Amino acid sequence: MPNETLDIIRSRRSIRRYTGQPIPEEGIRAILDAAVYAPSANNSQAWHFSVVRGEAMLTKVRAVMKQNMLASGVPRMLERASVPGFVPFYNAPVLIILSADPGYKYAQIDCGIAVQTIALAAESLGLGSCIMASSELLFANDADGSLARELGFPQGHKHVISICLGYKDEALEAKERNAGLVDYL
Predict the structure, then answer these.
(1) In the beta sheet, which residues pair with residue 12?
(2) Nearest CA among 59, 135, 147, 69 for reference residue 96
(3) Where are the beta strands (DSSP E) in the chain?
(4) Coil, strand or helix at 139
(5) What is the pLDDT of residues 81-111, one digit of tens each?
(6) Predicted TM-score (pTM) of this structure
(7) Which residues touch 69 (CB under 8 Å, ≥6 apart)?
(8) DSSP state of 98
(9) Positive or negative, the Cα torsion across 113, 117, 177, 167?
(10) Which of 118, 113, 96, 139 minimizes the C-alpha distance to 44?
(11) Cβ neighbours of residue 122 under 8 Å, at least 6 residues apart?
(12) Cα angle 124, 25, 129; round to 5
Protein backbone atom coordinates (compact mmCIF):
# COMPACT_ATOMS: atom_id res chain seq x y z
CA MET A 1 0.00 0.00 0.00
CA PRO A 2 1.81 3.18 -1.18
CA ASN A 3 2.13 5.89 1.47
CA GLU A 4 4.57 8.81 1.66
CA THR A 5 4.98 8.62 5.45
CA LEU A 6 5.71 4.89 5.37
CA ASP A 7 8.19 5.45 2.53
CA ILE A 8 10.02 8.08 4.62
CA ILE A 9 10.16 5.70 7.61
CA ARG A 10 11.59 2.91 5.42
CA SER A 11 14.14 5.17 3.68
CA ARG A 12 15.62 6.86 6.77
CA ARG A 13 19.18 5.73 7.63
CA SER A 14 21.78 6.78 10.19
CA ILE A 15 23.98 9.14 8.19
CA ARG A 16 27.58 9.62 9.29
CA ARG A 17 28.87 11.76 6.41
CA TYR A 18 27.53 15.23 5.68
CA THR A 19 28.31 17.75 2.94
CA GLY A 20 28.76 20.65 5.38
CA GLN A 21 26.16 22.73 3.51
CA PRO A 22 24.22 24.79 6.07
CA ILE A 23 20.60 23.91 6.71
CA PRO A 24 18.28 26.87 6.04
CA GLU A 25 16.69 28.42 9.11
CA GLU A 26 13.19 27.53 7.94
CA GLY A 27 14.20 23.85 7.69
CA ILE A 28 15.53 23.77 11.24
CA ARG A 29 12.41 25.55 12.52
CA ALA A 30 10.12 23.12 10.67
CA ILE A 31 11.96 20.14 12.18
CA LEU A 32 11.79 21.56 15.72
CA ASP A 33 8.13 22.47 15.25
CA ALA A 34 7.47 18.81 14.41
CA ALA A 35 9.50 17.72 17.46
CA VAL A 36 7.43 19.72 19.93
CA TYR A 37 4.33 18.03 18.50
CA ALA A 38 5.72 14.58 19.32
CA PRO A 39 3.61 12.64 21.83
CA SER A 40 4.68 12.74 25.47
CA ALA A 41 3.33 10.97 28.54
CA ASN A 42 0.42 12.91 29.99
CA ASN A 43 1.23 15.61 27.41
CA SER A 44 4.02 16.67 29.78
CA GLN A 45 6.28 18.04 27.04
CA ALA A 46 9.01 17.81 29.70
CA TRP A 47 11.89 17.89 27.24
CA HIS A 48 14.18 20.67 26.08
CA PHE A 49 15.91 20.99 22.69
CA SER A 50 19.32 22.69 22.48
CA VAL A 51 20.13 23.42 18.82
CA VAL A 52 23.89 23.74 18.29
CA ARG A 53 24.78 25.15 14.89
CA GLY A 54 27.20 28.05 15.27
CA GLU A 55 30.76 27.17 14.31
CA ALA A 56 32.24 28.35 17.63
CA MET A 57 29.88 26.22 19.71
CA LEU A 58 30.15 23.22 17.36
CA THR A 59 33.95 23.44 17.61
CA LYS A 60 33.72 23.53 21.40
CA VAL A 61 31.36 20.56 21.78
CA ARG A 62 33.39 18.53 19.26
CA ALA A 63 36.60 19.21 21.20
CA VAL A 64 35.00 18.38 24.56
CA MET A 65 33.44 15.21 23.15
CA LYS A 66 36.72 14.01 21.64
CA GLN A 67 38.62 14.72 24.86
CA ASN A 68 36.01 12.83 26.90
CA MET A 69 36.01 9.91 24.46
CA LEU A 70 39.79 9.62 24.77
CA ALA A 71 39.51 9.71 28.58
CA SER A 72 36.48 7.39 28.81
CA GLY A 73 38.30 4.09 29.19
CA VAL A 74 35.76 2.60 26.78
CA PRO A 75 37.78 0.73 24.11
CA ARG A 76 35.33 1.47 21.26
CA MET A 77 35.24 5.20 22.09
CA LEU A 78 39.03 5.38 22.50
CA GLU A 79 39.51 3.60 19.16
CA ARG A 80 37.11 5.92 17.32
CA ALA A 81 38.55 9.10 18.83
CA SER A 82 42.12 8.01 18.01
CA VAL A 83 41.52 7.76 14.26
CA PRO A 84 43.37 10.59 12.47
CA GLY A 85 40.90 13.21 11.26
CA PHE A 86 38.10 11.99 13.54
CA VAL A 87 35.49 14.67 14.23
CA PRO A 88 32.77 13.94 16.82
CA PHE A 89 29.17 14.22 15.69
CA TYR A 90 30.31 13.33 12.16
CA ASN A 91 31.06 16.98 11.41
CA ALA A 92 27.33 17.62 10.97
CA PRO A 93 26.37 21.30 10.69
CA VAL A 94 23.60 20.91 13.30
CA LEU A 95 23.52 19.00 16.57
CA ILE A 96 20.33 18.90 18.63
CA ILE A 97 20.70 17.78 22.23
CA LEU A 98 17.57 16.70 24.09
CA SER A 99 17.54 17.11 27.84
CA ALA A 100 15.00 16.47 30.56
CA ASP A 101 14.67 16.19 34.32
CA PRO A 102 16.14 12.76 35.11
CA GLY A 103 13.63 12.36 37.92
CA TYR A 104 10.74 12.39 35.47
CA LYS A 105 9.67 8.78 34.98
CA TYR A 106 9.03 9.04 31.23
CA ALA A 107 11.90 11.35 30.24
CA GLN A 108 13.79 8.78 28.18
CA ILE A 109 10.70 7.49 26.40
CA ASP A 110 9.40 10.97 25.61
CA CYS A 111 12.80 12.15 24.34
CA GLY A 112 13.13 8.96 22.28
CA ILE A 113 9.81 9.67 20.60
CA ALA A 114 10.82 13.31 20.00
CA VAL A 115 14.21 12.41 18.53
CA GLN A 116 12.61 9.89 16.15
CA THR A 117 10.17 12.63 15.11
CA ILE A 118 13.17 14.88 14.38
CA ALA A 119 14.81 12.12 12.31
CA LEU A 120 11.66 11.54 10.24
CA ALA A 121 11.01 15.26 9.77
CA ALA A 122 14.62 15.71 8.59
CA GLU A 123 14.28 12.80 6.16
CA SER A 124 11.08 14.29 4.77
CA LEU A 125 13.04 17.48 3.99
CA GLY A 126 15.88 15.59 2.26
CA LEU A 127 18.25 15.82 5.24
CA GLY A 128 20.22 13.07 6.90
CA SER A 129 20.38 12.37 10.60
CA CYS A 130 22.11 10.19 13.15
CA ILE A 131 20.60 9.61 16.59
CA MET A 132 23.32 9.36 19.23
CA ALA A 133 23.09 8.17 22.81
CA SER A 134 26.89 8.17 23.19
CA SER A 135 26.69 11.97 23.34
CA GLU A 136 26.25 11.47 27.09
CA LEU A 137 30.07 11.49 27.11
CA LEU A 138 29.91 15.18 26.24
CA PHE A 139 28.88 15.75 29.86
CA ALA A 140 31.30 13.29 31.51
CA ASN A 141 33.33 16.14 33.06
CA ASP A 142 30.50 18.63 33.54
CA ALA A 143 29.96 18.06 37.26
CA ASP A 144 29.38 21.78 37.85
CA GLY A 145 26.84 21.94 35.01
CA SER A 146 28.62 24.78 33.19
CA LEU A 147 28.43 23.14 29.75
CA ALA A 148 24.77 22.21 30.27
CA ARG A 149 24.02 25.83 31.21
CA GLU A 150 25.96 27.13 28.20
CA LEU A 151 23.83 24.84 26.03
CA GLY A 152 20.67 26.31 27.54
CA PHE A 153 19.55 23.29 29.57
CA PRO A 154 16.83 24.27 32.05
CA GLN A 155 17.76 23.97 35.72
CA GLY A 156 17.91 20.30 36.76
CA HIS A 157 17.85 18.94 33.20
CA LYS A 158 20.38 16.34 32.08
CA HIS A 159 21.35 15.00 28.66
CA VAL A 160 19.06 12.27 27.35
CA ILE A 161 19.96 11.85 23.66
CA SER A 162 21.14 13.85 20.67
CA ILE A 163 20.82 13.89 16.91
CA CYS A 164 23.09 15.18 14.14
CA LEU A 165 21.51 16.78 11.09
CA GLY A 166 22.84 17.76 7.70
CA TYR A 167 22.75 17.20 3.98
CA LYS A 168 23.74 13.61 3.19
CA ASP A 169 27.13 12.84 1.71
CA GLU A 170 26.40 9.12 1.49
CA ALA A 171 23.58 6.88 0.33
CA LEU A 172 22.92 3.78 2.39
CA GLU A 173 20.79 0.75 1.67
CA ALA A 174 18.59 -0.82 4.32
CA LYS A 175 20.19 -3.64 6.28
CA GLU A 176 18.49 -6.99 6.48
CA ARG A 177 15.70 -7.07 9.06
CA ASN A 178 15.47 -9.90 11.59
CA ALA A 179 12.72 -12.44 11.07
CA GLY A 180 10.25 -13.37 13.76
CA LEU A 181 9.93 -9.94 15.34
CA VAL A 182 6.15 -9.77 15.01
CA ASP A 183 3.39 -12.11 16.05
CA TYR A 184 -0.18 -11.50 14.95
CA LEU A 185 -2.61 -12.90 17.52
Answers:
(1) none
(2) 135
(3) 47-52, 94-100, 128-132, 158-166
(4) helix
(5) 999 999 999 999 999 999 999 999 999 999 9
(6) 0.94
(7) 77, 78, 80, 81, 88, 137
(8) E
(9) negative
(10) 113
(11) 31, 128, 129, 165
(12) 40
